[in-house]
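Researcher: Here's my situation. A collaborator sent me these components and asked whether they could plausibly form a single complex. I don't have experimental data yet, so a predicted model of the whole assembly would be a useful starting point for our discussion.
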Amino acid sequence: MHFAPIVHVLLGLTFAPLLLGIINRTKALFAGRRGQPLLQLYYDVWKLLRKGAVYSRTTTWVFRAGPIVGLAAVLAAMTLVPFGKMPALVAFPGDLILFAYLLGLMRFFTVIAALDTGSSFEGMGASREVQFSALAEPALLLALVAVARRTGSISLSGMFDKISLDVWQAAGPSLALVAAALLVVLLCENARIPVDDPNTHLELTMIHEVMVLDHGGPDFAFIVYGAALKLWVLGLLLIGIVLPIQSGNAWIGIAVSICGMVALGVVIGIIESTMARLRLVRVPQLLVGAGVLGALALILVLR
Amino acid sequence: MVLLLLSVAILVVSGFVALIGQRSARIATVTGIGGAIVGCAIGLIPSVGVLLGGKAESLHLAWSVPYGSFFVELDALSAFFVAVILAISALAAIYGGAYLWAWREKKSLGPPWFFFNVLVASMVIVVLARNSMLFLLAWEVMALSSFFLVTFEDERESVRHAGWTYLVATHLGTAFLLVMFILLGREAGSFDFDQFQNLSGTPKAFGGASLLFLLAIIGFGTKAGFIPLHVWLPEAHPAAPSHVSALMSGVMIKTGIYGLIRVLTFLGPPPVWWGWLLIGIGLSSGILGVLFALAQHDLKRLLAYHSVENIGIIALGLGVGLLGISGHSPMLVVLGFGGGLLHVANHAVFKSLLFFGAGAVLHGTGTREIDHLGGLLKRMPWTAFTFLVGAVAISGLPPLNGFVSEFLIYLGAFGGGISLNAGAAVPLFGLIAGLSLIGGLAAACFTKAFGIVFLGQARSKHAEHAHEAGWLMRIPMLLLAAACIGIGLFAPIALSILQRVVQQVSGLPANVVNENLASAAGPLRLIAIVGAAFLALVIILLLLRRTLLANRKVEENVTWGCGYESPTPRMQYTASSFAQPLTDLFKTLLGTKKNVSAPRGYFPSDAALKTETPDTFTEKIYGPVFARIGAGLWRLRWLQQGNVQLYVLYIALTLLALLVWKLW
């Protein structure tokens, strides 16, 4: 069982793009379409990896560093997230802070790579990204503090290990609030509806997509894959709280978590099919709302 | 101790030589830099020695000043601050040599070098002094020498105004310190610090301890830049020459933090509300500091507001430490003080790096206006790279040093948050939410500062003709950037160096401190490993992309503009537009003034938008109050007739009045 954490990371590396396929299939189902293949993202990444590259004349090495630093940061963050009830590859008190800040590092470089093009579209996306993420960060940490206070552990692996059916029975409302806050953070950080629309076609309305407009070829493959991994790790956080099943058997744990991720994909697909995107000025309210949910959870836990 | 006093003497003497030899710019510069480097190097030896485990040394000489004695001591706390001060000062001197050289034709370089070296010497004495009179004297010399450095370009009206604001603010702060030391001295019967130390814990002293604490917060907080006492920082830092801004922002304001910590060791066990107060100050300084920074267009003013933010983070660390003392939680004490002190060093490193970078930009382009810059990375690659390192570090992102100290404060807050009772845990939760908001906003601010200044296309002639700084300016920046990476990757070692300082500040037994530091060193080691793995991944991915693109077509083309092929630099996003969503969101706090002339008609010819974010506290509080005081004092204007005989008469009358009063 010593290799289990490595297996978990490998599972994430393999299955992360599938999650987006599930979301897209769910959306297609709701729209009455057949939709793209489940493995579409794998094909996309493969296609992009085999292409050459076109760089803007305005750009510098910062633009080329963006995708690489982003992917490396999210890969490093992956080692900190437990898979279901199984501890992560690296676990220590306070690892959740490193996790949040590694995602921050990814964002920092995506944003400056976008600014490097000198395009006002990308500047616009970058500006929105930093605004929303600055508000999402407190929501994420407040929600995690509530869990930490309830479970008495400040390591992600320790926290998720202690969430059981009993804990849900005792502190169900607060955990539900935490899950709601985390879901909003997940939707925001991964540029999903109602914060951002990954399928929009107008540069003016995009956030994440517009920041990476000028990237192509292998660089874009890194970005697409990195985004899939980011969705995967934040999804694991949510799953770890919502699924309190403690089997003791590693294989069952993996199977349960994979099922949880599939269900999460379906849920995100349903949200995207049934909701419209919020106006940009409403998004901060949603994120502050998530922060308030986190704070409420904390108050319930403190009581 | 002898070496340290020798270092101070070298600094002062070389300053005087530079002043005397001011007719030749070369002599002034060479003696100024030479004295600063030699003095700092000599002084670093004993301070590092004490930090690494050497014995504390002290020197007590009689002094003819009433209540004064020449009493200096180098203990762990002083050694830590002396080391930071001297290391940054030496680099600032090297950088300043090249930076000031541009003025050699227009101005005499003697005075700035004299005041620079005296400023460094006075800062050293401030942290060594163990007598109130000596401390206040050095404190005043520090304030005055930095005032003369701030007003170096005194031909500009804005600089004179900045200098005036600084002078008033620093003296108001000192007034509170004077009261505090008098009260302490009355209680202890002596003005030596070792007598104050004996006070702690005695019930009599404790009654007034809270008053003393508040006086220290106001007096030292003015120097450090706690909101709302920060108003001089965003004025003085941009006005000063950049190496002086780096020195003031990087180390001089930390003497306020030093003073606060030193006084805390006199006051005995703190009540809970002290910790609450410091956390409250830290949160308001941190959040408002970074918000005001976001709204600025002037690169150095932006950095000055970030000093307010980082002082806030340091205050958060100290607040956690105080809560730990009052809550009897050694873990909180060690992590709070450890994180706060480490942030003192880290902020000194990355803030002086950033001010050096801003100075290089100003030097190379002639403007500090962010919206006039752009595309500098191509012309100033070294400055750009080091500025990026500083920007990532100050945003508190791994794997650099800013993350490490913020992590320790977070870890303390989390640890206390899950273990303490609800009442004590609430401020810690506020801290966690606030610190994460500060982190997000700081990242927003520095993507703006780096992205608009160094990336994209040049927005003006200034930026088009930019030139890279010379080697003398680049070397300090490269060294500081290396320090950001080094402290980030070798954080456990940095923390172990702080062990004696933390022990002295907390007053806990050595084994308790060691135990708690060791429990923090474990996570730091793993963070360093993840950081190293991250860097390795970056290299692997770079190689991967290189092999993938090896035999393929790699082209250059125009940036995508929906098919528009000839974008101009004016179409780019600017600093103001980048920050607009956030400044609008917080407009009640910021009070940004917008001056819009909107495009009119079917074929609009011109339109303009001008935004300005003056400091709310200056506008709403200090401005009106000082205007009122000024108006009141105007009534005494008739006393000032400019006639010498009249002033002699005033003196004679005063003497007569005193005589009558005494003889009565």
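Model: Some features of this prediction you could bring to your collaborator: Chain A touches chain B through 81 residues (CB under 8 Å). The first strand of chain A starts at residue 53 and ends at 56.
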